[in-house]
Design brief:
Number of strands: 19
Shape: elongated
Radius of gyration: 22 Å
Strand content: 25-35%
Order of helices and strands: EHEHEEHEEEEEEHEHEHEEEEEEEH
Oligomer: single chain
Distance between the termini: 25 Å
Amino acid sequence: MSNDKIYDVIMVGAGPAALTAAIYTTREDIDTLLIERGVIGGLAAVTDIIDNYPGFSQGVHGLDLADNLRVQAERFGAKIELGEVTSIESNGKILKVKVDDKDLLAQAVLVATGCDYKKTGIPGEEQYYARGVHYCATCDGAFYRDKRLAVIGGGNSALQETIFLTRFASHIDLLVRSKIKASDILVKELQTFIDSGKVSVHIGVSPQEILGDEKGVKEIIGKTLDGKNQNYVVDGVFIFIGLRPNTDFLRNSSIELNEQGFLVTNANLETNIPGVFVAGDVRSGATMQIASAAGEGATAALKIREYLEEKNRKIKSSTE
């Protein structure tokens, strides 16, 4: 490894977990660099209203929460850079984080890369991505004012985004493969739009193919429980079927992942590689909630401080 600058901690990702961790580390004069490949704030930043984050009685816009976290972290001295981390390596003493075409060195690393949206894998999904197929209602919903939409999914996210899309769409077909698994409060809120005819729910429908032309999506084909195909004429399809961890860049590393690709940690949020910590949705056992991601970020920051203090003690004692 080179003799370049060695950061106290490099954080991979800049969502609620990493930004919260950075607030804690920088307040204690721990030199902190965050690397983000996409949107600062992660999936929280592209969520319209976050209704269950403590302290906001009327909810908070995801972008506002993300921006406030960023400003707070930067106020204490955190540095945020855009780039894509492609590997993390250890020589037993220093960690090397490869970012694009350069190597950065750190005493400790926090992986807080979060999750991305799962894909259905059906024909037409990739072909019509951003031309009628979307995974973020707050990003793209406004393009479909007075148009027909299909939403795929039956969990909390699918219902939340369906409710949001009713602001724009003339009608929404909600395709649910098995059953609705969302919270009672969301089911009750959705019922209002079902009663008004704005939303139609189709239980037991598995999406099979998305069809369209050079202009974009025209319809989606679903298969019912009795094996029959059902065509839904739509102008766009929004897919909300769960999340997958952003850990592809670690699959060939020595850092332990579980079968689903989530990072495995001990009680101190540390991986099997000393000095590599994890917080937020990318961690095995995470609750996939913004509030808990922020809490884990704070915990990880405190554990990183302890790790650095112990490491410095050992170095000092070995030189005396």
